[in-house]
Amino acid sequence: MGNDFCPDATVRTILKATEELNTLNDVDTILDKILWEARQLSGADAGSIFLVKDGQLNFSYVQNDTLFQTDESNAAIYTDFALPMTEDSIVGYAALTGETLVIDDAYEIEATKPYSFNKSFDEKSGYRTTSMLNLPIKSHENKLVGVMQLINARNRQGEVGPFPAECVTYLPLLANNASVAIQRGIINRELILRMMQMAEMRDPTETGPHVQRVGAYCAEIYHRMATKRGVCIKETKRYRDHIRLAAMLHDVGKVGISDTILKKPGKLTNEEFAIIKMHTVMGARLFKNQTSDLDHMSMEIALRHHEKWAGNGYPGNVPDIWSDSVQPGTPLTGKAIPLSARICAVADVFDALTSHRSYKDAWPNEKAYMILQDDAGTHFDPEVVEAFMDITGVIKAIQAKYQEQPHD
Ligand code: C2E
Ligand code: SIN
Ligand code: SIN
Ligand code: FE
Ligand code: FE
Fold first, then answer.
1. Which of 51, 231, 278, 342 is a Cys-bridge partner for 226, taking CB atoms 3.0 to 4.6 Å apart?
2. Do the beta carbons of residue 389 and residue 369 sit within 8 Å?
3. End-to-end Cα spacing for the chain
4. CA distance 117 to 151
5. Is this model's pTM higher than 0.90 or not?
6. Residue from 335, 337, 342, 344 whose mutation best tests the ligand 3 pocket (most atoms within 8 A of CB)
7. Per DSSP, what are the bridge partners of residue 47?
8. What distance in angstroms lies between residue 340's CA and the mean position of ligand 3's atoms?
9. Residues catalogued as catalytic
10. Is 386 exposed, middle or buried (0-12, 13-18, 19+ CB in 10 A)?
11. Which chain residues have CB less than 5 Å from ligand 5, an ion?
C-alpha cells in the first residue's frame, strides 16, 4: 500500500489470502501466512502475533526481516512468554480496547497514555522499533482471539515511516477474516493432544510435551531439508503444515497395547516386544479411510516410523494391515520408507533418548547427537541426520518451550 494504492486489489489480496488459509491445518503455518500477508500489504519489516490463552496474551509467532536469518527465525517462534491482559503494554491495550492502535514512533509515546513501550527487546537485539500497527484479531462473534503487531512500515525506497492510512482501514479485515483459521488451527492441535492423552493413560512416556516436541522437530527438520533441496516455498509450507500434526500422532497405535506391557518398568521379553511392534499397524488402521493428504501422511508415519534406512526395522511389508494374523514382514529400506517417516524416526528417537523413561534416564543432547550420527546410514537416513545437526539451536529452543511438567 504505497503511492500506487488500489482498494480493489487490496480487497482481492485479502480475500485470496483468506481462501488460502483454509487449506492449512496447523496453527503455526496459519500464523506464518497471516503475518506474511499483513507484512506484504503494509511493508512492515517485522511483526508478531499474540494469542489469548488462559486470560493472558501468549507470544505465538514472529517474523523479522532485519534480525532473523531463516534458522534464527525458526528458533524465535519457540520463544515462550506471555503478557498479562493489562493496559500498560501496547499489545494489552489493543486487546482490552479491541481497537486498532497506530503508533508513529514507539520512543515518542506521550506520557499521558496508559501504555508505554517496553524497550527490553530492542536493547537486547539492537533493533530499533519505530512505527507500530496493533490489530486486535476478533472472531465473528466479536470474541478476542489475539493481537497482531506490525513493526516498521517501509516505503518503496526501504525507508521506515508511519503506517499509511490505508493499512489502518484494510488490515483489520485481514485480521478478522483470519480468526476462523486461527481457531481451527488451535482446535486441531488440541484434538490431537487429547487423542494422544488417551494413549498416554496407557503409556505415561507419550506425554503432551513429548508429542509437541516430536511434531516441532519434524517440522523444522523437514524445513531445513526442503531449503537444502531447493523445494519451492509453497510446497515447503504445505508439507510442513502436515508433518507438524501428523508426527504428533506417530504412536497413536499404543492405545491398542495392553497396560502390563506398555507400563512395564524393566526390559521387555521378545514376546512382549513383538506385541509392542503392532502399535505401528494399529495406528495405521486409524487412518485407513484416508480423506485428506493429512490423513495419508498420518498413516505413513504411524506405520513406518520404526523402519530403518538399511533395513531391520518394523513392521516391514504387511500385505493386509486388517488381517487378524498380521505379522512383521521384510523390512523396508532407503527411500522406500516415506520421507515423513524417515524424519519422524530421527525426531522420535532423539526425544526418547533425551527424555526420562521407565526403563532409562534422560541423556544429555550431546550424547544423543552422537547416537544419531553413529546410526546415520544404518538406522537413519543420513540426509535427515545432517539436517537435524544443522539446526541444533532450534532443537534446543523447542526443548525449552515444551518441557515436561513435574510429575506428582
Ligand atoms: P519409545 O520409548 O518412545 O522409544 C522410541 C524409540 O527410541 C525406540 O524404538 C528406540 O529406537 C529408541 N530408543 C528408546 N530408548 C533407547 C535407548 O535407551 N537406547 C537406544 N539406542 N535407543 C532407544 P523401539 O526400540 O522400537 O521401541 C518402541 C517402543 O517400545 C518404545 O517407545 C517403548 O514404548 C517400548 N520399549 C522399547 N524397549 C523397552 C523396554 O526395554 N522396556 C519397556 N518398558 N518398554 C520398551
Ligand atoms: C522433494 O521434492 O525432493 C521432496 C519434497 C517433499 O518432501 O514433498
Ligand atoms: C518424498 O517426498 O517422499 C520423496 C523424496 C524422498 O523420499 O526423499
Ligand atoms: Fe513408536
Ligand atoms: Fe514416541
1. 231
2. yes
3. 55
4. 12
5. yes
6. 335
7. 63, 150
8. 8
9. 254
10. middle
11. 251, 348
The rounded Å distance from CA 242 to ligand 1 centre is 25
Asked if 49 contacts 31 with a C-beta cutoff of 8 angstroms, the reply is yes
CA distances from residue 249 to 75, 238, 348 in whole angstroms, order as listed: 23, 18, 11
* Amino acid found at 18: T
Domains in the chain, CATH or no CATH each: 7-179 (3.30.450.40), 203-401 (1.10.3210.10)
> What separation in Å is there between the alpha carbon of 231 and the centre of ligand 3?
11
Give yes or no for residue 373 having a pLDDT over 70: yes
pLDDT in tens, 321-351: 888 888 889 999 999 999 999 999 999 999 9
Q: Nearest bound ligand to CA 302?
A: 4
Closest CA to 229 of 26, 53, 381: 381
pLDDT in tens, 216-255: 999 999 999 999 999 999 999 999 999 999 999 999 999 8
